[in-house]
Design goal:
Layout (H helix, E strand, L loop, with lengths): L4 E2 L4 E3 L8 E4 L25 H12 L9 E6 L2 E6 L4 E3 L3 E2 L17 H5 L12 H5 L2
Antiparallel strand pairs: 1-7, 2-6, 3-5, 4-5
InterPro entries: CAT-like_dom_sf (IPR023213), Plant_acyltransferase (IPR050898)
Keywords: Transferase
GO molecular function, one term: transferase activity
């Protein structure tokens, strides 16, 4: 069966309040090319009151204490990337489908809806890479 996924253009979710504007140097581990990752995830909700709005609000609140995530990777000196804490925000895409989660096996493998139909569509911008030390809190 073919399922249709509808998603509007991505939007930037900005921190709910002002955040520090600073440049944070990356550790030698974080500068290692093999440590770079791009975080992409799908959250699914089958009920609840305005889940997409609540998720956006929660991201906006979380970006205040975790303000580097709302920034961008910059390279003011060639080969020396830093986190430019700009408060620009994170990309958010809301999608709907013409099926239930049960119809698509709760998006467990094997995927019944191609991943690209759910996730792609972000504008080409310098994206923030979540680094290992941020996850450790250092």
């Amino acid at each position: 069966m073919s399922y249709a996924v509808t998603k509007p253009s991505p939007v930037l979710v900005k921190p709910v309040s002002s955040t520090p504007t600073e440049t944070i140097p990356l550790s030698s581990i974080d500068r290692t090319a093999t440590m770079s990752v791009f975080v992409e995830f799908i959250s699914m909700f089958s009920n609840g009151e305005q889940p997409a709005k609540r998720i956006k609000e929660a991201f906006a609140k979380a970006l205040v204490p975790y303000y580097p995530v709302a920034g961008r990777i910059a390279e003011p000196t060639p080969g020396v990337p830093v986190v430019d804490c700009t408060g620009e925000g994170i990309w958010y895409v809301e999608a709907t489908a013409n099926c239930s989660l049960e119809d698509v096996n709760y998006l467990e493998r094997p995927l019944m809806i191609q991943r690209r139909r759910c996730c792609l569509g972000l504008p080409l911008v310098s994206s923030l890479k979540i680094r290992s030390s941020w996850l450790r809190g250092s």
